Amino acid sequence: MKALCHRNVFSSLLSISYLLKTISCSPISLLEQRATTIAPVIDINFPDPAILQDSDNTWYAFATDGNGKNVQVAHALSPSGPWTVLPNDLLPTPGNWSNKQNVWAPDVRKIGSTYVLYYSATDAVQTAQHCVGTATSNTILGPYTAAETPLACNLSIGGAIDSSGFTDTDGTHYVVYKVDGNSIGHGGSCGNAVAPIVPTPLMLQQLASDGVTAVGNPIELLDRDGGDGPLIEAPNLILVDGVYILFFSSNCYTTPLYDVSYATASSLKGPFTKSKAPLIITGNPFNITTPGGAQATVDGKNLVFHANCGAGRCMFERAIEISGTSVSIS
Predict the structure, then answer these.
(1) 48, 89, 228, 317: which one is catalytic?
(2) What positions are marked as the site Important for catalytic activity, responsible for pKa modulation of the active site Glu and correct orientation of both the proton donor and substrate (predicted)?
(3) Is 157 helix (H, G, I), strand (E, B) or coil?
(4) I want to staple 181 with a disulfide (CB 3.0 to 4.6 A). Which of 22, 158, 175, 285 is the partner?
(5) In angstroms, what CA-CA distances link 14 with 156, 186, 330?
């Protein structure tokens, strides 16, 4: 593996670990040997988890296709579990714009009395790229009925993945997603480490009151820079005490540099400032490998994310604390 320098690699003692990785191309460091050991709360393949508390206070988690389902779902009485994986497939039939395959990173929001599912699937014609779609249901466990057309699908710039809903204080609904530029990259790590590097921006799309109809054009919130490796992805937006916090992952999910990072802004549309170091990376602060795909609870108190496990990518959960523009995890 050709290693990539991490963002602000000299900015803190923590970054010594990243520098050692970059020099040695090894996922093991002295810091990792002292990392806290944690166990998954869902110990099956359950990637790109999203989390929602329903009106009856039950918590639900949703995940990328796997285990014979397009959209996996589990429930619990608290974010820390214990979690029970349910037999339901929330989206048995993805939208007709898709080839019905590779349903990734689902997210569910309740808008009025309707549950809205955001997801991505491969395009019916250009199957190397994904588009973001929507589906709706009167119950949280579905089945969800997919819209006939995608919500975001600019295939010329790579398509779209990793959609996540957000509602601002004025009640306006949005979705954030990634332009999947590395799907049309020129090779190397995650297809986008060979120049010219293709942008992979995180976008904000305003929605109508139904939560499924786009209003206006999307705007860019954040893009990769040299320290992010080939991409950024998996955006999730929350608002805590007047600060907009955009969680995301950077680098390639096949390498130990994949992470959970965040950026902050005082305005919904930015500018967003990236944190000096990742919140979670291989071996720091937990003894896990390639963490990513994180989503926070809307109150900013808990974070779910995946990391490598024997079954594939299992779901982990930890408490987080937000103070101004700083996020910590325990």
Answers:
(1) 48
(2) 162
(3) helix
(4) 158
(5) 39, 32, 16
Report the DSSP pairing between strands 302-309 and 292-296.
antiparallel
- Count CB atoms within 10 A of the CB of residue 206: 17
Tell whether pTM > 0.85.
yes
Q: pLDDT tens digit string along 35-71?
A: 999 999 999 999 999 999 999 999 999 999 999 999 9
Report if residue 29 sits inside a domain.
no
Q: Is residue 28 part of a domain?
A: no
Q: Tell me whether residue 233 is one of the annotated catalytic residues.
A: yes
Q: What is the mean pLDDT of residues 89-106?
A: 98
For residue 24, tell me if it sits in a domain: no
Total of domains in the chain: 1
Candidates 65, 162, 233, 259; catalytic one: 233
Mean pLDDT (the chain) is: 92
Domain range for 175 is 37-329
Alpha helices per DSSP H over 25-128 = 30-33
CB atoms within 10 A of CB 189: 22
Q: What is the CATH number of the domain that holds 178?
A: 2.115.10.20
Check if the beta carbon of residue 129 is closer than 8 Å to that of residue 89: no
